[in-house]
């Protein structure tokens, strides 16, 4: 779920704090609602373990994607097993992803002499740009989970997680990814706003 930043950890006991704050990385207004929601589900312990693993990787300057693969897979299985509980907060992912992709595609206009450049050419240019930076692996994982392997019966928990990991990677390499970070950040903000409304009872 959320990703704890290094500035939020207590210096005297960072690991203890990371296990007690699974909601960091969300908008301030979402921290308490998300915390209450995650603590009410069956995957609470795995969520805490996953965040603790990522924090430990960050502290040791290790690759969290590789280091935390096992616990991430266990968390995915838990989400699948308890999808009735977790799926409601992921229902807004698809329109947010569509909006974000539309905004990103607008940043890659048709090449000179191609007035009717179709989606395939645009998507190819976007992918070429994304894999050219240091977030290639995070991008390919998010692409696979959110678009390629997506079916109507899937919940979107894995997509949300992978998009958040991609955003963190892009923030860390903003010199390269700056051209499209605006679209990514606006999509991230939109999702969290929709989630806040749902958790506070304003959703359907």
TrEMBL record:
Signal peptide: none annotated. Residues 7-22 have a biased composition (Basic and acidic residues). It comes from the Eukaryota. Residues 1-28 are annotated as: Disordered. Pfam families: GCK. Residues 30-104, 122-195 form the GCK domain. This is GCK domain-containing protein.
